[in-house]
Amino acid sequence: MDQATLGLLLYVLGLANLAAIYAVMALGLNLNWGVTGLFNAGVAGFFAVGAYTSVILTAPDSPHFLGGFDLPLPVGMVAAMLVSGLIALAIGAATIRLRSDYLAIGTIGIAEILRLVLKNEEWLTNGVRGITTIPRPFVAETALVSELSYLAMTLAILLVLYVLLEAALNSPWGRMMRAIRDSETTAAAAGKNVDARRLEAFVLGSMLMGLGGALFAHYLRYIGPEATEPVTTTFLVWVMLIAGGSGNNRGAILGAFVIWTIWSATELLTRQLPPEWAVRASYLRIFLIGLLLQVVLQRYSRGLLPERNPAERGATGPQDRTL
Amino acid sequence: MSGARPIIRVEEARLSFGGVRAVDGVSLSVARGSITGLIGPNGAGKSSLFNIIAGRYRPTAGRVLLEGEDVTGLPPHALFARGLCRTFQIPAEFGQLTVRENLMVVPAGQSGERIWNAWFARKRMLEEEEAIGRRADSVLEFLRLSHVAGELACRLSGGQKKLLELGRTMMAEPKVVLLDEIGAGVNKTLLAELAEDIRRLNRERGITFFLIEHDMELIGRLCDHVVCMAEGRILVEGSAAAVRSDPRVLDAYLGGGRAAA
Ligand SMILES: Nc1ncnc2c1ncn2[C@@H]1O[C@H](COP(=O)(O)OP(=O)(O)OP(=O)(O)O)[C@@H](O)[C@H]1O
Ligand SMILES: [Mg+2]
Fold first, then answer.
1. What residues have their beta carbon closer than 5 A to ion ligand 2?
2. pLDDT confidence of residue B255
3. Which of A23, A165, B33, B224 measures 20 to 30 Å from A220, CA to CA?
4. CA-based radius of gyration for chain A
5. For domain B6-92+173-255, which architecture applies?
6. Interface residue B246 vs chain A (CB under 8 A)
7. Which of A96, A173, A200, A203 should we substitute to test contact with B (largest number of B Cβ atoms within 10 Å)?
8. Distance, in angstroms, between A153 CA and closest chain B CA?
């Protein structure tokens, strides 16, 4: 294999790895918004909590941050999910009863606070310098094998999650959650404990975002405060879900792969810019993605793979359903 | 009314929305096993009273007793668990669920509502689903909705949505059902059949009905006892015939008409 082909292959594998990690988070957001109608605007916060939790638990001892627990990676990932879930439980307990916009405000606020904590508490996180001694599993002789093995792991995790979430969505559990999304009042009158159930979905979705954070940190072997910017997490994951098809697990996964590919391509584009434009690159990319979302929604108003109710008989009627 | 303990008792209930006193000191009893009617001009506070009884709104003052127990301020799902079921005047169906699914949501205690069971106790879950599905099918047949069972509920007509509201109460195992204008928008023939069914459920299963209705003929046909509200208060109560011919009732309706004109 010549160098150019190898380079391209590594690029594609890197793309696929990150896309699969984003897909885990998009599945989490689908559980929140797509299935239960919860406006979680704090994806970045749960992502960060998951990333730092797993890193701190698995990294070797260091004078620069809390660590030295040297725990195995699976423990770190499970802990990432648990800590994200606990934080979601605390936020949700305070805000889930309120109107949905308060949940949005609450989650934005908490995500921002967490970001500042992670940036400023140097004893815990090494502050703005970030952590670079993160263990990564399956590191092999060649980059190709390393990339492939990590991808195999993320895809396996993604597959398991997909199977579990599909089973849940098509069970009485999923039916009840969708009912709560469609009409909270009627669901309550049908005997469902709306607050408790929404909290449940909120916690489960946030746990997946935490897992995404852990996978991300162990893949890049670096985590710093800039990785928890809302733009590269909250914003992108939302675009992935909406473009892919809110309410549809496959749509969430497809959206993650498509949008992440395009997002990476925009970086290639903005790299071509003259130096005086380089500082504008970051917001140009966001603008391009926003524009793209508009274009997609013009053509596919409910995303590339819209929510499809398997119980529905012959969906031939007009498709103008409300969100 | 007999001396038996009423199934619902409302004591001095009040509910204000800003300056509007929607319910302004209402006390009433609904006898167990009865079909009780609630009438009154538009804006009289009938739906608001239902919302208080069913736990949607907490009254600003007063109490609600269900089978003698104080249930004031309990959330709707807790009241449902105690056997109280209600329909909404303006249906808010689960739009992205099929009509059949709308009904299948209702039964309490489904094991598959725990995500754990949905993953690891599938056999039991699927057996329950069969039974619930069969029950939903029979309710759909009863409501003449079988042909739209697989349609998304958001596509139903206004009258069909009303029927689906009623269907929800039939999927529960209620002791008392509050029906808020279930007849509005439903055609006469079907309504007559529904009235017959309500009477049968009442007689055979002892379900108490408390219903808001503008159709006086239907009220006369169904109800043992009728309460008339106006401007947040109870105006008159008694037998359907007595309430219908009461001059104060006629006046309230006419007064409402004058105000609207
Ligand atoms: N959620 C609400 N917010 C504000 N005002 C309300 C609300 N619900 C009811 N009201 C007011 O309370 C009063 C009583 O309304 P209610 O719906 O109880 O009347 P109703 O007797 O059911 O009338 P109708 O026969 O037209 O259904 C009205 O003036 C109405 O505007
Ligand atoms: Mg009303």
1. B 47, 89
2. 67
3. A165
4. 20
5. 3-Layer(aba) Sandwich (3.40)
6. no
7. A173
8. 22
CA of B70 to the centre of ligand 1 (A): 25
- The residues near B117 (Cβ < 8 Å, ≥ 6 apart) are A171, B111, B124, B125
Integer Cα distance of B89 and B86 in angstroms: 10
| DSSP-derived secondary structure for A16-33 | HHHHHHHHHHHHHHIIII
Q: Does B151 touch chain A (CB under 8 A)?
A: yes
CB A202 within 8 A of CB A88: yes
Q: What is the pLDDT along chain A (323 residues), one digit of tens a residue?
A: 788 899 999 999 999 999 999 999 999 999 999 999 999 999 999 999 999 999 999 987 777 777 777 789 999 999 999 999 999 999 999 888 877 778 888 889 888 898 888 888 888 787 777 888 788 888 878 888 999 999 999 999 999 999 999 999 999 999 999 999 999 999 999 999 999 999 999 999 999 999 999 999 999 988 888 877 888 889 999 999 999 999 999 999 999 999 999 999 888 888 888 887 777 887 888 888 888 898 888 989 899 999 988 887 654 444 444 44
Nearest CA to ligand 1 atom 29: B43
Q: What is the dihedral of CA B134, B135, B139, B142, to 10 degrees?
A: 60
For CATH 3.40.50.300, the residue range(s) in chain B are 6-92+173-255
A2 touches chain B (CB under 8 A): no
Q: Is the CB of B227 under 6 A from ligand 1?
A: no
**Which residues make beta-bridge pairs with B153?**
none
d(CA B87, CA B166): 7
- With the most atoms of ligand 1 within 8 angstroms of its CB, the residue from B20, B38, B211, B231 to mutate is B20
- The identity of residue A26, as a single letter, is A
Instruction: Please work out whether the CB of residue B98 comes within 6 Å of at least one atom of ligand 1.
Output: no
Do the chains contact at B96 and A182, CB–CB below 8 Å?
A: yes
Is the Cβ atom of B42 under 6 angstroms away from ligand 1? yes
Look up tokens 């003449």; give the residue. Answer: B144
pLDDT value, residue A322: 42
What ranges do the domains of chain A cover? 3-226
> What distance in Å separates residue A113's CA from the closest CA in chain B?
32
Q: Are B213 and B191 in contact (CB under 8 A)?
A: no
Closest among A322, A247, A315, A34 to B154, alpha carbons compared: A322
ipTM above 0.90, yes or no: yes
